[in-house]
Specification:
192 residues, alpha/beta, four-stranded mixed sheet, 6 helices, 4 strands, 39% helix, globular
Length: 192
């Protein structure tokens, strides 16, 4: 005897919110050299969803394109007007007020050479940096941005919280002091 009619899926596990339907397309072969690539991406998405203020519709489509700098440069030029590669781009399928009802969440694109170079320059493990960028891209799809200082602080705090769920250190910890202007140290006045 069959438990359910053919063609029907089992119900999601109790207590686990159904996440987006993830499609990963590896366009640049070097991404395949990253150990546990799919698991790392899935874990990063789960961590990002756990901290995000907005949730996508159950089963909403999420596409991740793992490409190279050459192709990313074209995408960045054609869609944003910047004729250079970048680490991650996000293309939301719905505005924030429709995310919960949209059957498509959007697309995230990552450039291999830029991600590897940044990880090396920042002395970070490639997998940790990749997780951070996947979370960053996901948060953009979920309506977060960093155009203003307040938005940037909010988005960074969400990224830090998601990364902590994965056991990854705060990626901004080493950069924040350098970004802040140095405060003069008060010097004692000589006694007269």
């Amino acid at each position: 005897m069959k438990d359910r009619p053919p063609g029907r899926r089992a119900a999601p596990r109790t207590g686990t919110p159904p996440g987006p339907s993830l499609a990963i397309r590896v366009q640049a072969r070097r991404w395949r050299e990253v150990p546990g690539l799919r698991e790392r991406v899935e874990d990063a998405i789960a961590a990002g969803l756990a901290v995000a203020p907005l949730a996508p519709a159950a089963g909403a489509e999420l596409s991740l394109l793992m490409t190279d700098d050459r192709r990313m440069r074209v995408v960045n030029r054609d869609w944003r007007g910047f004729d250079k590669p970048t680490n991650v781009l996000s293309f939301p399928a719905a505005p924030p007020d429709r995310i919960a009802r949209s059957p498509v969440l959007g697309d995230i694109v990552l450039a291999y050479e830029t991600v590897v170079r940044e990880a090396a320059e920042e002395n970070k493990a490639l997998g940790d940096h990749l997780s951070h960028l996947v979370i960053h891209g996901l948060l953009h799809l979920l309506g977060e941005d960093h155009e203003t200082s307040a938005q940037a602080q909010r988005m960074e705090s969400l990224e830090i919280a998601a990364l902590a769920r994965l056991g990854i250190a705060d990626p901004y910890a080493d950069t924040e002091p350098a970004a802040m202007p140095a405060r003069p140290v008060p010097q004692p006045h000589p006694a007269s």
